[in-house]
Amino acid sequence: MTELRYRVVKGADTTTPPFAIGGKALIEATGISHRFGSKEILTDIGFQIHPGEKVVLLGCNGSGKSTLLKILDGLIIPSAGRYTYDGETITPASLKEAELHRRFRGEVALLFQNPDAMLFNPTVFDEIAFGPRQLGLADVEGRVRHWAEQVGVAAHLQRPPFSLSGGEKQKVCLAALLALEPKVLLLDEPTAALDPRSTGWLVDFLSGLGVTILITTHNLSLAPELGSRALVLGEDHRLIYDGEIQGLLGDMRLLAAANLVHTHRHRHGGVEHRHSHVHDWQ
């Protein structure tokens, strides 16, 4: 993969990609803004993601992380700006073109934070098979059984997905996406429904996938395990950092500005002072 050179994004102008690299970007957002009515959700977002990168998207609740993932999955069209996937501009009109629609839907997959929003088939088998069937892919049964085994739900293939635990549902949804063999995984808080053991499994599992990943989390301690690069959305819905995760974790002022750490008083004996703490919660 091309060596990347990152820098912190300064100011409001993010219409220019925030670092200079060689090679072709797989995902490129240029001046992306979005509003719901009068409410600003994203403001002037710009970045590139190259094939094989594993990028962590950070930001407090309401900063626009989920909306940005939905834009990158073509589910929401931004109010302003331009989004391209593999050189193709993604718009409602372009997604009506059969060839691009089929390729984009097969190559870019979004895992919702709430797995119940993705489950609607009578059995786990049918849930995992749904995407490949819709796209007319070969060997649907082989895909289902392979990915069910990989994520650990092979024993549940004939069960209704609604009867599973939250973590098992999340694994079924992940298998359903992987059955398409996508090039890009967009993962919205995928550890939110997982216990610590399953979270460890997911980190190891994702590290072994040869796909491009953009993943959101609140958990700063977990972030370095999920990727080496971070994008941070501020409370003003702008991109305030694009760079190496390790550099971000050492910048308490920036983390505080993004509402990713909190400060409160501590008392030790007769001395009172304040500490900043990370938000290691989902």
Notes on the protein architecture:
This protein is of the alpha/beta class and 282 residues long. It has one domain: P-loop containing nucleotide triphosphate hydrolases (Rossmann fold), CATH 3.40.50.300. It has 9 helices and 12 strands. Strand 9 and strand 10 form a beta hairpin. The longest helix is centred in the middle third of the chain and has 13 residues. The protein is globular, with a radius of gyration of 20 Å.
Order of strands in the sheet with the most strands? 6-7-8-3-9-10
The best one-word shape is globular
Using the 3D structure, state the CATH architecture.
3-Layer(aba) Sandwich
CATH superfamily: P-loop containing nucleotide triphosphate hydrolases
Mean pLDDT metric: 87
Biggest β-sheet strands, sense, barrel: 6 strands, mixed
Please identify the structural class as seen in this structure. alpha/beta
Radius of gyration: 20 Å
Structure summary, number of beta strands? 12
| H and E string | EEEHEEHEHHHEHEHEEHHEE
Main CATH class:
Alpha Beta
Strand content: 25-35%
Distance between the ends: 31 Å
Question: What is the helix fraction of residues, given as a range?
Answer: 25-40%
Helical segment count: 9
Summarize the structure.
With 282 residues, the chain is of the alpha/beta class. 29% of the residues lie in helices and 27% in strands. A hairpin with a 2-residue loop joins β4 (80-85) and β5.
Q: What are the key terms here?
A:
globular, six-stranded mixed β-sheet, 282 residues, disordered N terminus, Rossmann fold, alpha/beta, four-stranded antiparallel β-sheet, 9 helices
